[in-house]
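Cross-check.
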Amino acid sequence: MPRRGMIVEKNTRYDPTYNNILVNMLAYHIMKNGKKSLAFKILYRVFLNIKKKTENNPLYVLRQAIQKVTPDITIRVIYKGGSNKRIPFEIGSTQGKMLAIKWILDASKKRTGQNMVLRLSNELIDAAKSSGYAMRKKEEIHKMVEANRVYIRPEKY
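Predicted model, tokenized:
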């Protein structure tokens, strides 16, 4: 029996056009200086561009890209015994999706191109096909996890 009151679920928000949580999460990560309408304009243009290039549902491409880039384990650096140790940690689905969105946006910012719409649409299409910079980031993390398997312990930090 909980002693701190009732547990209430967070009020998750959906975007106005597609009524999807992932679209809203991506828009909030694109947003700079509180300009939400500009972030949604960029995102909807990205979806139109994806629709032209792949002739698939853009939400399907977005879901596929995020699912393929989402990590299930990550590395945390912990100071123990006079040295820094990289310890592999399992992460939840929400944190994994946040990391995937962050990696996709960082990869699209590193791409060369004219505007954010083209760069982000190309990165989402590449991530859905299991290629691109965001997938490389996931593979690097998994290689680091394999290299640091020695430090895995059942206790949590």
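The chain has a mean pLDDT of 85. Strands lie at 73-80, 83-90. Passed to J.P. for a second look.
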